[in-house]
Inverse folding.
């Protein structure tokens, strides 16, 4: 998700770096690539134009800073513009007022019911951090889709929330019952799940309008399926015209959607994307953060330039072995050790960090880098004291094996655990490379 610019970006950056200087000419080329990438990601044409123009006016005539490469500077400009388009730097953290009613709206299948469970789970987790527990009520007026209400009841049990079923099956009467129950029960929050349709439908909007007038919810969230691309923008506009809403939850960002919808939504509707859904489970929810998403949109270019440098320097045989396992999608600890040797052959980590766009301006303390390099030394020692079988299937490392390995490497067991954690993270990169079709 959100990676629509990254592939083109690695091309842009490498071209610009060769050029030595930002000129009108190579900006034009780079801008063309940005335009193409956005269009491919299903960002509406008019918005693409607005974005490209804003990057252009920022970039042209800008003095090149002496300590960074022109390509890096261009990346930074695009990054800043992306962030501005998606809500700016200072996203105010979203909180639900207590007590309040939250109305959840959206088309059928967009993920309303699932999202309610996720949001409740999120709210409870945040409350626990502050030593609290929220008293949350869930209720549904979705009489349109069979078993929709049962689905909410089942979910309520897995997320520590109460559930109320109205006796009437007429939405307006049911809402009265729900509100009475909410007020009597002294709940902190009420989430009302509503009925959707497959497409925008006047009857659905009218019904929502009536419920809205009765309940007067403090928060109205629109659930949008990111897989529907540009269509989701039309949906959001229709809801906003008729019922209005405060913010959106964008679901299914774990699918192969390219994230263009998120980009367009924020700019076109001028409303925040509060949450994003990244899977079917209740903890597959994140707060939307413009800075992180902008980073992700551009993020893979850096990984690519690292790979390019690695490819030049690594011994042919090592590379082939690594490629074979990457192709298979299985990364073993052997490969992991080999990667660490590669990094060492390429020079210090500090040098490698220069290839990360944006990192040039980040203040990385020398102690941090030293620690990372020390860790790598320990990791190599730990892997060295494992049996070949343990290297292939680290999951067999139970506590007694871990103790033996730690002793052999002269480290603490916590270091072994840290290695296994880093190894897991590194597997994510393998997925990333595969997705890019790089291997
Ligand atoms: N992969 C994925 N699936 C989701 C996500 N959110 C919801 N779903 C799935 O989308 C389908 C419809 O969700 P549901 O909550 O019933 O939609 P509703 O009709 O709007 O209430 C279900 O199969 C959900 O598991 C998400 O973020 N990622
Ligand atoms: Mg539902």
């Amino acid at each position: 998700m959100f990676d629509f610019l990254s592939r083109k970006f690695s091309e842009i950056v490498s071209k610009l770096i060769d050029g030595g200087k930002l000129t009108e000419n190579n900006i034009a080329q780079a801008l063309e690539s940005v335009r193409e990438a956005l269009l491919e990601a299903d960002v509406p044409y008019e918005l693409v134009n607005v974005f490209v123009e804003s990057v252009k006016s920022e970039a042209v005539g800008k003095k090149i800073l002496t300590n960074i490469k022109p390509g890096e500077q261009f990346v930074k400009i695009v990054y800043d513009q992306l962030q501005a388009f998606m809500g700016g730097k200072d996203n105010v953290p979203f909180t639900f007022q207590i007590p309040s009613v939250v109305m959840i709206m959206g088309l059928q299948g967009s993920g309303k019911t699932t999202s309610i469970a996720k949001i409740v789970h999120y709210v409870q987790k945040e409350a626990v951090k502050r030593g609290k527990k929220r008293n949350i009520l869930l209720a549904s007026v979705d009489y349109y889709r069979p078993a929709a209400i049962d689905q909410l009841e089942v979910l309520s049990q897995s997320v520590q929330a109460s559930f109320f079923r109205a006796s009437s099956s007429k939405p307006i009467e049911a809402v009265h019952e729900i509100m009475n129950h909410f007020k009597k029960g002294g709940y902190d929050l009420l989430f009302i799940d509503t009925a959707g349709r497959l497409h925008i439908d006047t009857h659905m909007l009218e019904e929502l309008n009536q419920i809205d007038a009765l309940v007067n919810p403090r928060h109205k969230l629109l659930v949008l399926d990111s897989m529907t691309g540009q269509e989701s923008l039309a949906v959001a506009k229709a809801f906003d015209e008729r019922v209005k809403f405060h913010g959106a939850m964008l679901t299914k960002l774990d699918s192969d959607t390219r994230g263009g919808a998120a980009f367009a939504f924020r700019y076109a509707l001028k409303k925040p994307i509060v949450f994003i859904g990244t899977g079917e489970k209740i903890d597959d929810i994140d707060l939307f953060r413009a800075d992180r998403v902008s980073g992700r949109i551009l993020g893979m270019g850096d990984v690519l330039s690292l790979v390019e440098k690695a490819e030049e320097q690594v011994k042919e045989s090592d590379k082939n072995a690594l490629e074979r396992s990457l192709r298979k999608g299985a990364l073993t600890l052997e490969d992991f050790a080999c990667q660490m040797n590669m990094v060492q052959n390429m020079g210090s980590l500090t040098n490698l960090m220069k290839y990360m766009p944006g990192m040039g301006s980040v203040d990385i303390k020398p102690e941090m880098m030293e620690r990372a390099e020390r860790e790598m030394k320990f990791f190599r020692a730990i892997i060295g004291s494992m049996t070949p079988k343990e290297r292939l299937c680290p999951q067999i490392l139970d506590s007694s094996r871990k103790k033996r390995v730690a002793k052999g490497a002269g480290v603490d067991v916590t270091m072994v655990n840290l290695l296994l954690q880093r190894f897991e993270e590194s597997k994510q990169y393998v997925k990333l490379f595969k997705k890019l079709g790089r291997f």
Summary: The longest strand covers residues 100-106. Strands lie at 100-106, 136-140, 162-164, 189-193, 219-225, 247-251, 273-277, 285-287.
